[in-house]
Amino acid sequence: MIRRRSRRTAARVRERLESAFLEDHSPRQVAASFSVGLFITALPTLGTGLLLFVLLATVFKQLSKIALFASVLVLNPPVKWGVYATSYWLGQRLLGPVPGFTFDGVTLSAGPDVLVRLWVGNLVLAAVFATVGYALALRLVVDFRARMA
C-alpha cells in the first residue's frame, strides 16, 4: 500500500512539474518556485502556507504557480507528520532535550521549549528540502526541455 501510494504521488508530482516545465518560465525560475514551495510546505504553518503561496504567486510573476503548488504533493499531510517528528528530534539534537520533559508527563510549561525545538529542526529540514528540491527540479526541467527540443 505504501509503495502504491508513493508511486501515485510521484506520478502526480512528475505530471505537475512537467506542466511547469512547459511554461514560459526559465528552468531556474521553475526550480526556484518548487524550492520555495518545499521550504514553505515543510514549515508547521497549519494550512496558512497555502495562503502564502497565493500571495507570493500574485506578487512575484516570475514564480511558476504550478511548480510552487506541486511542492504540496511532495510534503502532503500524511508525510508532514514524519517531518514534524524528525524536526523535533533534530531540534533536540541541536538544542538539547527539554529539561524535565517526558511524553508521560506533558505539561504546558514545557510548550515553548518544545516549540522552539520543533521550529529549529523544521527550519533546518526546510532548508535541506529546498536545496535538494531546487537541484532536482532544475535537472528535471533542463533534461525535459532538452528532450522536447
| First-last Cα distance | 37 Å
Low-confidence stretches: none
**What share of the residues does DSSP label as strand, in percent?**
under 5%
- Average pLDDT over all residues: 84
**Major β-sheet, in short?**
none
Estimate the helix proportion, in percent.
Answer: over 70%
Strand/helix succession: HHHHHH
| SSE class | mainly alpha
The total number of structural domains is: 1
Number of helices: 6
How many β-strand stretches?
A: 0
Rg, Cα atoms, Å: 18 Å
Principal-axes geometry comes out as elongated
In short:
By secondary structure, the chain is an all-alpha fold.
Descriptive notes:
By secondary structure, the chain is an all-alpha fold. The protein has one domain. It is built from six helices and no strands. The longest helix has 38 residues. The protein is elongated, with a radius of gyration of 18 Å.
Task: Reconstruct the topology from this structure.
Blueprint: H1 2-21, H2 27-42, H3 48-59, H4 65-74, H5 77-95, H6 111-148
Helix pairs in contact: 1-4, 1-6, 2-4, 2-6, 5-6
